[in-house]
């Protein structure tokens, strides 16, 4: 064999497995992907474990325990290109809601013996701990974007992943604006595109699962949400879900807390 | 032999399961000294972070417990809220909920049976190796899984964390044309899933049976998926709201998942085997015939055969999907109106891995004051340890590496969803 296939590793930290499942969800492309790369470490799919270093590491999940805090450095050391996938890895995920609360109270609310539980007070993004080469947003990620990023990385070009707002995406696809036409609360103006315009096509405002776009005007949107009848708690909660700890969303939610 | 022999077998990070778990096995003089199935998936405190949130947010937030079975959370929490708020979702909206749940059973069952579990019976590392020997089988499985995901997309907007489900029903009902587009592929899938059930029925199954206490839902006129009463093969027959009176969770030191058990401390089984044993009479004629042709009786007590049961259930889910798609007419309203009020509600559905129970208390403004969620893998954890004891005792003569694999396979019988159970695997075997 003249060329060895690049080695792909998939790592899990605190998460729901939904983003790595998106890779197994590429039913039409999975066998082709397997022609191009070696699944060197992918616990959800295979018993086989090939030693690093790895050419591409996909990292799912956030850092929530002292063990994870150590392990991410080991992963970084073994990875040529490290790509974080999904809202947990890029922003701390839904579990970052604990960043806004008393963690001891959280543990005792769920577990009878808090002394058995080892957890950090905050859930943090991978980039808060190690350098990250590329972040793929979403809760969950969009598998079309995942294939684009994998393909681009394999051939060494920049991946085509837009960073404009969901609002722009709706306009480009001719989707009627649910906020203007129906007065629905929508995070589209401040949320990065990428999901494929799902919620508005189901008569629902964007709930921000792709996280903040670059330089979002969250305060102007919050004002408008107020005019639409959302009280302070509702405005705060809308910004405080799967990307609660992403800085622009965290700051805006605290203003209305 | 006077010398003490010790064997330590460890699986540090279990593969082909969803989430993180491990097994420690310590054997001394041919007897199990210690066996622990550990869940080290980090806790994410869902019950705590729901406090103070609006009732309407519970479906989207709890769906993030699991990327493989989000419907169990979207729908279980919705139904619990509906119970608390005094409304019920019936007729065509209930049919649509059953359709999307069939989609989840299909994608989850086919993923597990064909891609995660089947390699064990062929002594292969993964499904890609099966694809080298039998590409048609793997391609067929991928196509079936994809169709399950398409059902999720048509009804819910996307396969992982669908957006279209809410307390009271849906944001928007799918068009008749979209639902009807599923009909032809569904007809193919019924035959294709029968082929897979028969292929898996031909595997050699390790020798092990257990007289399980099977707990599942039962519905008066259909194979229970999204609602019904909670029953067991030992005579239990209760309303969903009575669940806390009969089942408890215990927090043990070696696991981040709470262990579910009956109030008297006994282990029980939930999931495909439990459903099959309790509700075989309600499967379709074709599903029953396929089970028989694949080597199953009316009850199945060998957990290794769960792979066949999953495909029988998959076949049934395709038949149900076809039935619903053929009859589908767009309902006039996409949801029933819900008004916040104080109260407590219970919800329970059959997730692919077994019953998933939710309970929420609300204040007068509809804000959540208390949340309790009992996922299926937490309930199965105690039974998994019992099965491991039984399988290790029966297969003690296997070399360490083979015994380790057999233990992993025993755990995978349960399709454990560790992400769910931790509100779970590594195998560590020690032989002295």
Provide structural commentary.
The complex is a heterodimer of chains A (257) and B (432). Chain A contains 11 helices and 5 strands, in the order βααββαβααβαααααα. Chain A has 257 residues and is an alpha/beta fold. Chain A folds into 2 domains: 7-155, Rossmann fold, CATH 3.40.50; 166-255, no CATH class. A 5-stranded parallel β-sheet of chain A has the order 2-1-3-4-5. In chain A, helix 10 (232-239) runs antiparallel to helix 11. The radius of gyration of chain A is 19 Å and the shape is globular. Chain B is of the alpha+beta class. Chain B has 2 domains: 6-43 and 394-431, no CATH class; 56-379, Orthogonal Bundle (Cytochrome-c3 Hydrogenase, chain B), CATH 1.10.645. Chain B has 15 helices and 14 strands. Chain B has helices at residues 46-49, 58-63, 70-85, 91-121, 127-133, 135-156, 176-180, 183-201, 243-246, 272-279, 285-293, 306-327, 376-394, 400-412, 418-421; strands at 6-11, 21-28, 31-39, 165-166, 169-170, 215-218, 229-232, 237-238, 247-250, 259-262, 343-351, 354-362, 368-374, 426-431. In chain B, the strands form 5 sheets. In chain B, strands 1, 2, 3 and 14 form a 4-stranded mixed β-sheet that branches. In chain B, helix 4 runs antiparallel to helix 12. Chain B starts with 5 loop residues before the first strand and ends with a strand. At the A-B interface, helix 1, helix 2 and helix 5 of A face helix 1, helix 4, helix 5 and helix 6 of B.
């Amino acid at each position: 064999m003249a060329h060895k296939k690049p080695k792909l590793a998939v790592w899990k930290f605190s998460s729901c497995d939904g983003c790595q499942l998106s890779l197994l969800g590429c039913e039409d492309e999975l066998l082709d992907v397997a022609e191009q790369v070696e699944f060197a470490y992918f616990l959800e799919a295979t018993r086989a474990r090939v030693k690093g270093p790895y050419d591409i590491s996909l990292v799912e999940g956030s850092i929530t325990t002292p063990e994870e805090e150590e392990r991410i450095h080991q992963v970084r050391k073994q990875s040529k290109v490290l790509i974080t996938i999904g809202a947990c890895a890029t922003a701390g995920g839904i579990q970052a809601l604990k960043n806004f609360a008393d963690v001891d109270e959280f543990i005792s609310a769920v577990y009878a013996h808090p002394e058995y539980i080892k957890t950090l007070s905050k859930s943090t993004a991978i980039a808060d701990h190690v350098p990250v080469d590329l972040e793929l947003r979403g809760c969950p990620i969009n598998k079309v974007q995942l294939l684009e990023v994998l393909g681009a990385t394999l051939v060494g070009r920049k991946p085509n992943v837009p960073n404009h707002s969901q609002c722009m995406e709706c306009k480009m696809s001719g989707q009627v604006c649910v906020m203007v036409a129906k007065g629905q609360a929508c995070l589209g103006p401040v949320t990065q595109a990428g999901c494929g315009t799902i919620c508005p096509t189901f008569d629902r405002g964007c709930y921000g699962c792709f996280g903040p776009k670059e330089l979002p005007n969250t305060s102007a949107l919050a004002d408008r949400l107020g005019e639409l009848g959302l009280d302070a708690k509702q405005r705060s909660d809308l910004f405080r879900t799967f990307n609660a700890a992403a800085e622009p969303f965290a700051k805006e939610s605290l203003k209305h807390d | 032999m006077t010398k003490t022999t010790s064997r330590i077998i460890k699986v540090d990070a279990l593969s082909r399961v969803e989430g993180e778990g491990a097994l420690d096995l310590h054997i001394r003089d041919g007897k199990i000294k210690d066996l622990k199935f550990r869940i080290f998936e980090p806790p994410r405190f869902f019950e705590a972070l729901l406090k103070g949130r609006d009732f309407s947010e519970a479906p989207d937030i709890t769906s993030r417990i699991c990327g493989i079975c989000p419907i169990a959370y979207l729908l279980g929490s919705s139904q619990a809220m509906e119970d608390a708020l005094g409304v019920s979702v019936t007729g065509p909206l209930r049919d649509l909920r059953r359709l999307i749940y069939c989609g989840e059973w299909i994608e989850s069952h086919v993923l597990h049976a064909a891609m995660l579990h089947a390699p064990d019976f062929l002594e292969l590392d993964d499904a890609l190796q099966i694809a080298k020997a039998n590409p048609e089988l793997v391609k067929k499985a991928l196509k079936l899984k994809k169709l399950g995901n398409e059902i999720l997309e048509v009804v819910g907007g996307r396969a992982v964390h669908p957006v279209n489900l809410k307390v009271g029903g849906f944001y928007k009902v799918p068009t008749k044309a979209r639902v009807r587009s599923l009909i032809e592929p569904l007809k193919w899938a019924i035959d294709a899933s029968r082929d897979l059930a028969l292929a898996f029925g031909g595997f050699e199954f390790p020798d092990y049976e257990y007289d399980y206490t099977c707990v599942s839902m039962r519905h008066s006129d259909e194979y229970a998926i999204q609602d019904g009463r909670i029953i067991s093969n030992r005579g239990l027959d209760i309303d969903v709201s009575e669940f806390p009176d009969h089942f408890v969770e215990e927090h043990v030191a070696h696991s981040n998942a709470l262990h579910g058990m009956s109030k008297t401390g006994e282990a029980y089984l939930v999931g495909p085997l439990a459903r099959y044993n309790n509700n075989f009479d309600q499967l379709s004629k074709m599903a029953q015939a396929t089970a028989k042709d694949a080597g199953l009786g009316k009850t199945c007590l060998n957990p290794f055969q769960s792979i066949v049961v999953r495909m029988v259930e998959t076949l049934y889910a395709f038949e149900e999907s076809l039935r619903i798609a053929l009859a589908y007419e767009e309902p006039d309203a996409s949801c029933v109106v819900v008004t916040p009020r104080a109260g407590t509600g219970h919800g329970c559905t059959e997730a692919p891995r077994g019953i998933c129970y939710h309970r929420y208390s609300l204040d007068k403004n509809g804000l959540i004051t208390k949340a309790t969620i009992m996922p299926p893998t937490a309930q199965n954890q105690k039974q998994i340890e019992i099965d491991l004891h039984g399988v290790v005792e029966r297969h003690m003569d296997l070399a360490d590496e083979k015994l380790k694999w057999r233990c992993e396979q025993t755990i995978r019988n349960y399709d454990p969803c560790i992400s769910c159970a931790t509100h779970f695997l590594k195998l560590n075997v020690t032989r002295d």
